[in-house]
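2024-03-11 09:14:02 INFO queue: dequeued item MFS general substrate transporter, len=406
2024-03-11 09:14:02 INFO validating residues
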Amino acid sequence: MSEELGTLTISLFVTGYCVGPLLWGPLSEVYGRRPVFIFAFLVYTIFQVAAAVSTSAAQVLVFRFLGGTFAAAPLTNSGALIADIWDARTRGKALAMFTLAPFAGPALGPTVAGFIAVSGASWRWVFWVLTIFAGVCWLQIVLTLPETYAPALLVQKAKRMRKETGEPRYYAHTERLAKKTLAQTLNSTLARPFRVLFAEPMLMAITVYMSFVYGCVYMLFEAYPIVFTELHGFNAGISGLMFLPLPVGGLIAVVTYIVYFNPRYERAMAQHAPNPVPPEFRLEMAIVAAPFFAISFFWFAWTSSASVSFAAPMMAGVLLGFSICWIFLALFNYMIDAYLFVSASALAANTVCRSLAGAAFPLFATQMYTALGPHWASSLYGPTLRIKSKYAPSAPAPPKEPVSEV
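2024-03-11 09:14:37 INFO prediction written
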């Protein structure tokens, strides 16, 4: 498999993330979370098998795009599932654990693929490993994942009561709603995320920044082989191990969030009760993490030299993983808190734009790092905006006298 084809398999898979959020979010609000998870992940698993037995490069690329489209279901709907189960006080801990997973996967993937390449096995084994992993995850979903979407649970309960009693008077409110036309459905499910995005300057700013961060993560898939394989002479397997500090940094970020920041948020809830905590409180983490993100890239850039130990750029991944995890935790929570009932649309628009960046950055990363070198390639107002928002439901709550801590 050529280098260009390998890059396209990443970009097209992430491009599928642009399509998936527009489908799986609305479908989960019609049919419930569980059926969408089960169906989408099963089809994703099937597409891994299809990629493994493909007979042409075109088939591999098509199945990668379709696989990414169906893989977007858990990526998109897991946040909604977390919101179904946990309230604002406890949601942050659950979201912290969820945020770690999307960074652990991309970090472990190059390691597994690298050792498959070193072993001399066919590239098809990359997809067979993905098939095995996806199949195990699908079985866990089938056996352990309950339905969590309240309207879907009410419909199920009403149907069960009608069947048991034979009386039609038991029904859920959503069963009596007028059926939407195709135009209404398209407007509410496909158009609203972009309508919210382009009408909201604060959402636009967050989305642009998160897209840049997300694109930089995927750019590392091209940068790391240049630094650790070409400069330091490691094989593909050892070079893949250089990604492991990223999830280590993410784990440190999750632990510090649970131990330090979440207790501060709980105290803020007590101080502002009965009003909600202003969403801007969540941004403190991003304010701290954003400079670390820039520092980590400069660290990686200016230690990427054959004359410097490989450990120096490798350990930059710890700070990079920490900063990315805190940035995403802060901004995900902020969007949910600020937009409440249209948060699904805000998150969908954000996911689509982030995925476009994640798909685009690897396409020019190799040429950029080759032309500029690792050194230069890697170097080179919230409340006010929210008051002007058409969709955010609340202005910042008035400050209260701080509660003394014992």
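2024-03-11 09:14:37 INFO annotate: The chain has one domain: 3-146+178-387.
2024-03-11 09:14:38 INFO item closed
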